[in-house]
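sorry for the late reply, my laptop died twice this morning and i had to redo everyting from scratch. anyway the thing you sent over, i finally got around to it. pasting the sequence first so we're on the same page, its 272 residues, then the predicted structure underneath. double check i copied it right bc i was rushing
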Amino acid sequence: MDYGRERDLALDWMSEAAEILRPYIGSAQRRTDATRTKAAGDVVTEADHAISDMLIRRIASNFPRDAICSEEGSQHDDPSRRRRWIIDPIDGTRSFIAGKPGYSVMLALAIEGTPVLGFVYDPVEEETWWAAEGHGVWRDEQRVMRHSRAPKLFWSPWAPRETGQAIARALGVEEIIEIESFGMRAAAMARDGAGVCASRPGAPHIWDTAAGWVITREIGARVTGYDGSPLEFPHHPTMHADGYVATLGVDHDRARTLMREMLPPQREASQK
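ok and here's the structure:
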């Protein structure tokens, strides 16, 4: 199916998100002044709310019948709707606050529970990675062709480095790249044509994965939970209870087994 109108509007919205972010990127004080901790221990900033509010307004205006799910909350969400937009206004908020790369703005459109469009805006490189079902992966206006670089382990900068090193050795992966955002990890896998990444057991939420899931699928990666089950995007709960493992050019079953054995569950860890 052609989602040309949705794609064009979403790309415009990513440009609007870039304008919202620009003053924060240039000011460490502004990034931290309006930061607070949410109930789950995650952090949220003024920029998160500004981007979420903008995207909700734009979607509701252009697609009033669609449901809208946002990490920061949305009065437009409705589990009975066939079409559902999924928003993560800043994925990798801790990296954003610290002024480090590896965060992104993410938006996805799911049809009957399956993401079919995904957008990941990288504010550091000022580019949008996006994918549409059956139409491949794009970097702004350029189609991304699959390469065959050596696979890397894309690892959270907030996760134990020694655990990542042990997993990489067991998989025969030589390089570890620290990236907090799931969307940016998906973009890196699309760029390299290879790689592996995962969440801890009991996480993440659907807004962390929906946009990147379309990109990884379109580049040919395999994405499942730790138990090998397909990733689902339900309304309730919003969390992927069986975790998240994505591989391209790496033994997927071996990777998910190692991740399950070596990553602590959510209640014992602070990383994705």
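The chain has eight helices and 14 strands.
thats about all i looked at so far, will dig more tmrw
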